[in-house]
Structure formats: structure tokens, C-alpha cells
Amino acid sequence: MLLDYGLSLLLTLLTVCITGIAGESYQTSLTFNDILPEDPKLYDKMRPPKKDGQPTTVLFHVTVMGLDSIDETSMTYAADIFFAQTWKDHRLRLPENMTSEYRLLEVEWLKNMWRPDSFFKNAKSVTFQTMTIPNHYMWLYKDKTILYMVKLTLRLSCAMNFLIYPHDTQECKLQMESLSHTTDDMIFQWDPEVPLVVDEHIELPQLALVKNNTADCTQVYSTGNFTCLEVVFVLKRRLGYYLFHTYIPTCLIVIMSWVSFWIKPEAAPARVTLGVTSLLTLSTQHAKSQASLPPVSYLKAVDAFMSVCTVFVFMALMEYCLVNIVLGDSDPPNPKPHPPPKMDRFFDFNAPGGKNGKRNSKSLENSETTTVNTFQRQESTLLLSPVPHIQTIPPPPCKPASAIPKLTPAQIRLRRAINIDRFSRVFFPLLFTLLNTAYWIMFYEYI
Ligand SMILES: *[C@@H]1O[C@H](CO)[C@@H](O)[C@H](O)[C@H]1NC(C)=O
Ligand SMILES: *[C@@H]1O[C@H](CO)[C@@H](O)[C@H](O)[C@H]1NC(C)=O
Ligand SMILES: *[C@@H]1O[C@H](CO)[C@@H](O)[C@H](O)[C@H]1NC(C)=O
């Protein structure tokens, strides 16, 4: 009884074991020949499966997991993608007893099968990752459709135009073309259901992904038409960075240069220093504004802005130059020490007449003629000489006149200089505001 029971247990165990082994052997026994036609000679891996002579359709699907490293200097960007190609090869045989919807195949078999020869047209480098296992797989569906999926990191070139930088929008593409099959043999098409998936959480430091779409870029070459598909990313530059690091500081520097108009004209060191410092700071700002850009030969929007600001600061410095010219070479207090020697000479002429009584009348005549002469000479020099001489000579004849409330030439010049400053105080801010408004209206639509 006990032996019987033991025997039956052993038997059931044995059958379980055998069926288990049989099941497992079915799982691993699939070889490449199992999916090839009965006569492997009929299968030519170099010939696309053109059913009824129609070009083979390869469906594409791209999942973009990441976009980054947008580099303006080299005009490249990096993308992490899942790239799926689906095609139907009617020549293949389905493995026996295939119950599931699809079956995982060994990727190595692809080498001996026909496969689409797509390549990334604008890629500078393609990285295929092998950790922890090579990042690709192949599925065989029940309807002899093959899906080949691969994860890639691509470094792609993107032609960028910086004409309206930093208000620019760049269009970066990811193009996939057939290397050796013309449209007669093979056609790429976007997956009709889900052609493209772009991760919603893509964050770029300076740009925003505003649009993503798929397109066809089939090319006509001398050898024929080659099928090509592309993904287009529309990237819009965010203005925030430039607003806070370029536009606002630059405007503040220009405004700072106007402080000069409120400093009195005599304070030359203060005004010149202010102007020169503003100019230097601005040139640093300008250099910083295009540190990450390639040196392009055309004028960018930011260049135009910076140039106008530089001109403004330069004009503020020049305005002081004008004020200084109007003010004259020497300061108003200077003429006072000058006249005394002349007065002395004046007295010296009179002195000899005072000493000798006899020649009194004669010397008086003499002195009168000399004084007239000196006056005439002074008048002639006054008329002939330009601004600088006017200051040094006139005080003696003016002295009696200044008793009557009248401005000295120095004061007149100072008044003129101050008037120039007063005009600049209004004119510069007004013109700057006007130009700034024009600039922002012009680029409003790009913001
Ligand atoms: C497939 O299934 C049939 C019956 O369902 C069976 O007779 C056959 O042996 C199976 N083939 C393989 C390879 O397991
Ligand atoms: C990509 O485009 C689709 C359809 O135009 C849109 O629904 C999706 O939000 C876009 N994705 C991103 C990240 O912009
Ligand atoms: C290639 O494409 C052009 C225009 O798309 C078409 O006119 C031409 O017939 C095509 N050539 C072939 C060989 O398909």
C-alpha cells in the first residue's frame, strides 16, 4: 500500500519534471532557421520584402526623452530618443505554437535579415548604450511584423540664425533618411497612431520647446529619390535671462552716465571719470552679452541695442567736451591774478610824470598817448583773438563797467555751459526713451 503510494508519487513527479523540461526547451529552442522560409535560399537579406511589387513601408515612431546641451557656438544640440521601426516581412515564417501577441527575438539575427537602412542625416555622433545590456530589442508579431526599437543619444547639428538674437526662435531637426533604398523599394512613414512623443518635462536653460512636429523630407538625388522623415523642434529663446543680465544693467549704465549733466561744469575729474567708467562698463556688458555665441558677421538685435547705448554714453562724454569748450580754457577765478602786473605797468608809466614836476605836462601828454595806445592795442587784440585771449585781457577796462550790474564774460560762458547741461538733461533721456520704445515695439512680436 505504502509502496504503491510512493511509486505513484514518483511517477507524478517524473511527469511534472518531463513536461517542465519540454516546456522550457520550447522556449529556448527557437533558432534563426525557424523563422526563415523552408528553403533558406529563397530569402535574400539584401532584397526588401516587396509584397506585390509595392515598396516596403517602414513605420517610424520616435519618443524624445530628453533635449539638452544646445550649443550656439557649434550649432549643435543633444537628444535622447527611443527610435522604433516597424516593417512587415511576409517571407518570414512564424515560430510554431506562437500563442502570445509578439515574441522577443535575438537582435543578432537582424544581421542576417533584411532591415531598413536608416541613418541620422544631421547627426554628428550617435551613442548606442550597452549598459546594463545593449539598449535595443526586436519583436516579431503574429502578422510577421517586425519591430526594432533602439535607444540612442544623438548629437545633432542645427542651423541657427542669430539675426534677431536674443529674440530668436530656432528650428532644430532630427532627420532620418534611407541610405541605399530609393522610394521604389522602401518608403518611411510616420506611425499613423502615435508618431512622436515628447517628454512634457523637458527643461532647457535658455530656450523653451514651443512646438514639436513630424514632417517628410524625401530628397531627390541624381541616383533617385530617397525617403526621409524628420522631427522638427521649435525652440524659442526665453528673454528673462537677457532682460536681467543685459538689457536692464545696460539701461542703468546709460542712465548713470547722465548723472554727469547734474554735476557742475567745473568738476572735470568727476564728469570725465563718470563718462569713461560708463563706457568701459558698457563694453564689458557688450562682450558678456555674446560670450556664448559664434562670431557672426551680421548685426544682431542685441548688438544694435548695445551700440545705441554705447553711442549714448559716448555722447554724454562728448557733451562735457562741448561744455568745456564753451566754458573756456581757464576757470573764472583765474583772470583776477593776471591783471595786477598790467596795472603795475599802467602805474609805472604814470610814475615818472609824478616825480619830475618840470616835465609834468609833457609826461602827461606822453602818458595819455601811451594809455590810448595800450587801449587801442587791447581793443585790436580783443577783436582779433578768439575766445582764449578774451579772458586774460579785458578785466582792466571792464572793471569800472562791472560796477554796473552786468555779467562778466566768464559768467556768461558758465551760464551757456549750464544751459547746455540743462538741455541735455531733457534731451538725452527723451531720445533714449524714444529709441528704447522703438526697439521694443519692433521686437514685441518675437517676445
Ligand atoms: C505545437 O502544438 C501542437 C499541438 O497543440 C503539438 O502537437 C506540437 O508538438 C507543438 N509543437 C512544438 C514545437 O511544441
Ligand atoms: C508636442 O506636440 C504635441 C502635438 O502638437 C503636443 O500635444 C505636445 O504637448 C508637444 N510636446 C511638447 C513637450 O511641447
Ligand atoms: C522623384 O521625385 C520627384 C518629385 O517629388 C518626381 O517628379 C520624380 O518622378 C521622382 N522620381 C522617382 C524616380 O521616383
Automatic annotation (TrEMBL):
Protein family according to the UniProt entry: Belongs to the ligand-gated ion channel (TC 1.A.9) family.
Domain spans labelled Neurotransmitter-gated ion-channel ligand-binding: 43-238
Claim: Cytoplasm is one of the keywords in the record: no
GO molecular function annotation: chloride channel activity; extracellular ligand-gated monoatomic ion channel activity; ligand-gated monoatomic anion channel activity; transmembrane signaling receptor activity
PANTHER family cross-referenced by the UniProt entry: NEUROTRANSMITTER GATED ION CHANNEL (PTHR18945)
Membrane topology label: Multi-pass membrane protein
A GO cellular component annotation in the UniProt record: plasma membrane
Keywords: Cell membrane, Ion channel, Ion transport, Membrane, Signal, Transmembrane, Transmembrane helix, Transport
Keyword Metal-binding: no
Alphabetical list of CDD domains matching this protein: LGIC_ECD_HisCl (cd18992), LGIC_TM_anion (cd19049)
Predominant place of localization: membrane
Chain ranges of the Neurotransmitter-gated ion-channel transmembrane domain: 246-329
Identification of the protein by name: Histamine-gated chloride channel subunit
Signal peptide residue numbers: 1-23
Residue intervals passing through the bilayer: 242-263, 304-327, 423-442
PROSITE patterns: NEUROTR_ION_CHANNEL (PS00236)
Subcellular location: Cell membrane; Membrane
Species whose genome carries this gene: Aedes aegypti
